[in-house]
Specification:
By secondary structure, this protein is of the alpha+beta class. It has 2 helices and 9 strands; from the N terminus they run H-E-E-E-E-E-E-E-E-E-H.
Length: 171
């Protein structure tokens, strides 16, 4: 009985110390999840509704989170914001509830699956002072969110497309 009360006290203490901010469990979702370089894609914080608009944010705003794309296959190897495999896409400014969305154009990237990396100054207080993170997507991610956390970049053009049009034009 005494042990159960001690365990309950410990659980309550941990729960009280857990941050109530979105920065504590920061993750991002893409819409659409597949596109070509030059196309526009939206990225939003987890918990932000799909149709959320930046004008719906509630003040005060949090510090901007600078975001990058990184090929998911090399994401576990990236541990610095100076890594040349990072591709900057902009800064997302969450509101006081951690809701936020931004739209960006996909840079010229090789076809691959890309995850998110970011510099989040506001996350330091919840992550032992760390401000840089890489969100590698693997089997440990909740299956419901896994496909939304990867951006599949397709080839900018297909040889079959122009060749097909040329053949149709000659007919």
């Amino acid at each position: 009985m005494r042990r159960a009360v001690g365990l309950l006290f410990l659980l309550l203490l941990v729960a009280a110390a857990a941050p109530a901010s979105a920065g504590a469990a920061l993750f991002f979702l893409f819409n659409p999840t597949s596109a070509k370089p030059g196309e526009r894609v939206a990225i939003r914080t987890g918990g932000t509704a799909l149709g959320f608009k930046p004008r719906q944010r509630i003040r005060p705003f949090q510090q901007p989170v600078r975001l990058f794309l990184v090929a998911n296959r090399v994401a576990p190897e990236v541990n610095s914001p100076q890594d040349p495999r990072l591709h900057p896409i902009g800064s997302l400014v969450p509101d006081k509830n951690g809701h936020g969305v931004m739209t960006f154009r996909i840079p010229q990237l090789d076809p691959d699956d890309y995850a998110v990396a970011g510099i989040c100054p506001g996350c330091a207080r919840y992550s032992n002072g760390r401000t840089f993170f890489v969100l590698h997507v693997d089997d440990t991610i909740v299956p419901r969110f896994r496909p939304l956390m990867l951006l599949h970049v397709r080839a900018a053009y297909s040889v079959a497309g122009p060749l097909q049009r040329l053949l149709e034009f000659r007919r």
